[in-house]
Amino acid sequence: MNWLNPLGLLALLSIPIIIYIHMLQRKSKKRRVSTLFLLNSEKIEKKAGSRLEKLRNSKLLWLNLLVAVLMTLLLLQLRKVQEQKVLKVVVVVDASASMSAFWEKGSKDLANELTKLAGKTKYIDIKIISSSIDEASIYSGALVGEASAALASFSPSRSGHDLGPALRRASSLLDDKGMLILCSDRPHDLSEDVMQYLIGEAIPNIGFTGFQAQANGKWQAVIKNHGRQAAQVKWAVGIPGNEKLVEQSVSLQAGELRQLRGEFPPTNDKMILSLPEDRFAPDNRLYAARPLSKKMNLEIKGFDDKNELQLLGILNRFDRVSFKDTPANFAIAQLSKLDDLGTQAGFYFLPGPYEWGEENLTAFNSPMIEGLNWQGIPFALAPKSAIPQGFYPLIKSGKNDLLLMRETALGPQFICCFNLNDPAVIKSPAMIVLMYRAIQKAREFHLAYNRKNFESDNEFYDYSLARKKLKVSGVTKPGVGLFRTAEKSGFFSILIEDGEKQKLMMEGGVFYADAAEGDFLMSESRNDIDLEKAEIVTIWQERSFLQSFWILLLILILIYGWYVFDKRQGMIQKAGKR
Predict the structure, then answer these.
(1) Does residue 295 contact residue 448 with C-beta atoms inside 8 Å?
(2) What is the CA 18 to chain-centroid distance, rounded?
(3) What confidence score (pLDDT) does residue 276 get?
(4) Which segments constitute the Aerotolerance regulator N-terminal domain (predicted)?
(5) What pLDDT, on a 0 to 100 scale, did the predictor assign at position 357?
(6) Residue 219: is its pLDDT beyond 70?
(7) φ/ψ (deg, to 5) at 392
């Protein structure tokens, strides 16, 4: 027996104070009278003075002392140390989507195994975690019934992922003693310390594994037969509210991939491709929207007529670009000096005189220029100028900066330290691809309506929505300008809220495309849990010593003390009225 709060002993100082208060109460006096009506002339009152009287025995005294003792016990927080023999069990549940094909039955079977383990000892400590480490724990406690309910409510839906981090976390929870169990639908190459409980089986499956669509409405989808035998299956094209506008059949050999092609329904920008229901639901529906990029208005300035015409011909091949006189979203322009540079995204170059640069070019690591070949392009270098803050080099010509870049709130800016008004530079494949990438990047910062399609559980950025009040459906918003699609297929939408008004800014489809999760040829059922290897751990645990009982007793004493005091006061008042 020990206590957590030794300062609680100070509460015992209240005992002498209680005794002192009771000794100040004067003893009542007896007076003999011949008749009761003579008492009316006497004023009956309770008196107390500074003179100490002999301590008298009373119920209130003992009740007050008992309350002081109980308060001391509560403040001390008494703890009783008990020896317990506990079986520690940590279960890692594979959160991959393939588990969903077997989870309804598998979760019950796993709960039955936990029940058997609980029968081996009086106390069991169960921890169940997901193999996806960014998810909260499924269950932690000692009640098998609650653990079973938690397993039943868990929904495995993640794409394929590494189980290693979750298993290392689970191992740290055991302190080298206990049972570590992995529940999955297929075997994994693990150490002997991990007992595998497999709930799968080899089942046939035909599902969608990929999708692409173009702005003109043409699309192509990939379908695969994951089974060991040839199969014929019906697939349908539909729209929200009518999933079977057109239905066709396709024959697939074992393991065959097949491309399906078509066009979006002419009266709808959304489409649903569907297959018959089977045990693995995620790849049976493919939701898609006709792609529509954000419209970008480009400003072209500082080029010769012939070169400008050539540049316009190249840019017109890009999706959704215009050259109107309205405020531009992206510029390709010549500046008289870099001091005129604002925050508008685009390519900016300086006037001559130009000098031919060295052929020795150095390209730095950047997604913008990754895979581009700049060798052989005749660059004429502009005079050196003071570079504004924030720019960093992408390409150097010898020791001279050739191309620099920085990020702004409106998108990427590039300083071309060469003559961009040159047909050889304009027509170079590397420059064309770089301009395309830069305009695509600038779209992420431009606030405009657009439609896109993504795979499930996939992240994408749209910085134009970063500081807006949004209403989202089918996606989450884990960071500034960052969005994550749902784990299940469907449509999504993002709206800007402005008071009572809402404006749709983005929508699209989410489809499942993890082919490995739809392949069940390696799935099997197996139980490696060995009850004989259940290692019982002895632990010493502190428990509160009758804490609830002391509180209940204190409440009862206070109620009874109030009753005694109220009864005594009533008798005094009654005697005073006679």
Answers:
(1) yes
(2) 58
(3) 94
(4) 1-75
(5) 72
(6) yes
(7) -135, 150
Buried b vs exposed e over 564-577: b needs ≥16 C-beta within 10 Å?
eeeeeeeeeeeeee
pLDDT digits (tens, 9 = 90+) for 20-74: 776 766 555 566 666 555 555 555 555 555 555 666 667 777 777 787 777 777 7
Q: How far apart are CA 414 and CA 351, in angstroms?
A: 15
Q: For the domain with range 296-443, which CATH number is right: 3.40.30.10, 1.10.443.10, 3.90.1150.10, 3.40.50.880?
A: 3.40.50.880
pLDDT band at 535 (very low <50, low <70, confident <90, very high): confident
- Using CA atoms, how far apart are residues 195 and 214, in angstroms rounded to an integer? 48
Average pLDDT, rounded, for the chain: 86
Burial track 8-25 (b if 16+ CB lie within 10 A, e otherwise): beebeebeeebeeebeeb
How is 539-566 classified by DSSP, letter by letter?
EEEEEESSHHHHHHHHHHHHHHHHHHHH
63 contacts 560 by C-beta, under 8 angstroms: yes
Q: Is the pLDDT of residue 450 over 90?
A: yes
Q: What are the structural domain ranges in the chain?
A: 2-76+546-577, 82-202+522-541, 208-289, 296-443
The pLDDT assigned to 564 comes to 67
Measured CA to CA, the distance from residue 241 to residue 244 in angstroms comes to 9
CATH architecture of 208-289: Sandwich (2.60)
Lowest mean pLDDT among 35-44, 154-163, 452-461: 35-44
Angle between helices 144-153 and 103-118 (to 10 degrees): 170
For 398-420, write each residue's pLDDT tens digit.
888 999 999 999 999 999 999 99
Task: Please report the beta strands in 28-77, taking only residues with DSSP state E, as ranges in sequence order.
Answer: none
Classify the C-alpha dihedral 449-450-454-459 as positive or negative: negative
- Cβ-in-10-Å burial (0-12, 13-18, 19+) of 169 comes to middle
d(CA 87, CA 386): 71
Establish whether domains 208-289 and 296-443 are of one fold.
no
